[in-house]
Specification:
Elements lengths: L1 H5 L11 E3 L7 E3 L1 H15 L4 H10 L12 H5 L17 E4 L2 E5 L6 E5 L6 E4 L8 H15 L17 E3 L5 E3 L14
Antiparallel strand pairs: 1-2, 3-6, 4-5, 7-8
Helix pairs in contact: 2-5
């Protein structure tokens, strides 16, 4: 696989904004319609818009997502540890990264499981011809992502969960507020 990557070819799966070049294994070309959407997502994220709002806009405009029927925040946000999601896909910055995960076998089931490799073991090569997002926008988006990653969860910009503000009356007449509020209203077993 390292030889494929050294030649500037892609050894991974399909990435939104790219398609394989027919007859040339591992070579990708940019799909300009999808690349425009990728640039739009990065620009909105770098400007401080949350992934959930970006996804809602894309769904409202009937823009097809990479997989499935709808965009969602995790499609954009991804997983930092695994380097997944649009925001973490370094191919958009013109860099192919491999060796992100390793496969291990579950001794009980015999199934293959993917496990993330430490970031120091990741390998990469520059492929400037595949860059979709400008370097400055990429850096701005990642600076924001890093900043948000270090915030306490209650400081991150997201809508509060409905149950967190729920207030109920208990059997003894006292009010209860918070995620456990409905526990006191459940039917009690007969004794």
């Amino acid at each position: 696989m390292a030889g494929v990557i050294r030649d500037g070819r892609h050894a991974g799966g399909r990435a939104y904004g790219y398609r394989p070049v027919p007859g040339k294994p591992g070579e990708l070309e940019i799909v300009e319609d999808e690349a425009t959407i990728v640039r739009r997502i990065f620009a909105a994220y770098a400007a401080g818009r949350p992934p959930r709002e970006i996804a809602q806009d894309l769904n409202r405009e009937n823009i097809h997502p990479p997989r499935g029927r709808r965009w969602n925040a995790s499609t954009i946000n991804g997983n930092a540890k695994r380097g997944t999601g649009l925001i973490f896909n370094e191919l958009y910055a013109g860099r192919i990264v491999w060796n992100k995960v390793r496969m291990v076998k579950d001794p009980d089931t015999g199934k293959r499981l993917s496990r993330p490799n430490p970031r120091e073991e990741w390998q990469s090569i520059d492929v400037p011809q595949l860059r979709i997002v400008e370097h400055s926008v990429w850096e701005q988006a990642h600076a924001l992502k890093t900043e948000k990653g270090h915030l306490a969860s209650h400081m991150k910009r997201r809508a509060p969960h409905a149950r967190h503000r729920k207030t109920c009356a208990r059997r003894d007449g006292r009010g209860v507020e918070g995620p456990t509020a409905d526990r006191d209203l459940r039917p009690q077993p007969q004794q």
